[in-house]
Amino acid sequence: RQNQGLIVKNLKAYHKTCVYKNNNLGQYLAGLFEGDGHIWIQGQIGKKTHNPRFCITFSLKNESLAKKLLGIIGSGFIRYKPKDNACVLVVSPVVGLKKIVNLLNGELKTPKIHQLHNLIDWLNKNHSCVLTKLPLNKDSLENSSWLSGFVDADGSFSVQHTKTETGAAKRKIACRLRIEQRILDPKTNESYFEILNQICLFLNCNLLTRTQKSTGNTYYTLAASSKVSLNIMTQYFNKHPLFSSKFLDYKDWELVAKLIINNKHLMDEGINTVELVRNRMNTKRVYFNWDHLKGLG
């Protein structure tokens, strides 16, 4: 119990000291948008015309991140959806839309680029802008914050601890990053294969497909968990941090990942750490520290 108390104390101190500076806001926001965002543009012009709306949806527990981004962009509002346990960052003033374009243009990596290009066309036509539509970004993932934003939107960190049926002494402990994304973009019918395959090549894992029984929809899915993958991920996410509550899950997850990398996860102290981490991650998290948002901007 004394050791467990010490580990819990160290975990809290660990979170408080992890404040990073992200100099790649546009890359991060691009990944976040391409995971959980969309741009609405009015179709037929009626009696009342409306500005386009740039939207990113967050789980309600990530309201602090939504507010932080709203402050950085400088215009817009947050719409709350209590029934969905969600909130939406909405930007519709022209000054805010121009800032969005300046941040995202040239950073997008998925078929959602067409939504941004349509917004640029709207600004050029209706507000005398001369904005150039830049193509898909083909830069490596390793040196960009794009993947951090995409994982904040569509990724999840988990720690597994199982015992085999042949004996309690035989344990399996694993750390996994899982990402799932639709196969086709619903607006353009273009495939997400290229970017998901690029992520798999970077993280050293395989790209699979999964069909959701309730809807019949098919998704690309990847799960990175090997030692090689763990090394790549810890180096990447410590250089390009997450900013949602998944940052806290990642920092707990990283403790176990390092135990696995150093072959210490099956020692008594390692097993204690694994159990403590499992009982405080994801839906079990009750302690939230948002100090890491100081590094966003």
TrEMBL record:
GO cellular component, one term: membrane
Cross-referenced InterPro entries: Homing_endonucl, LAGLIDADG_dom, LAGLIDADG_Endonuclease
Membrane topology: Multi-pass membrane protein
Molecular function GO terms recorded: endonuclease activity; hydrolase activity
TM spans (from-to): none
Location within or outside the cell: Membrane; Mitochondrion
Pfam families, A to Z: LAGLIDADG_1
Entry annotated with the keyword Zinc: no
Keyword Transmembrane belongs to the record: yes
BP-aspect Gene Ontology terms: intron homing
Primary localization: membrane
All residue ranges annotated as the Homing endonuclease LAGLIDADG domain in the record: 29-119, 147-254
Keywords for this protein: Endonuclease, Hydrolase, Intron homing, Membrane, Mitochondrion, Nuclease, Transmembrane, Transmembrane helix
Sequence similarity: In the C-terminal section; belongs to the LAGLIDADG endonuclease family.
Protein name as it appears in the record: LAGLIDADG endonuclease
Gene behind the chain: orf297
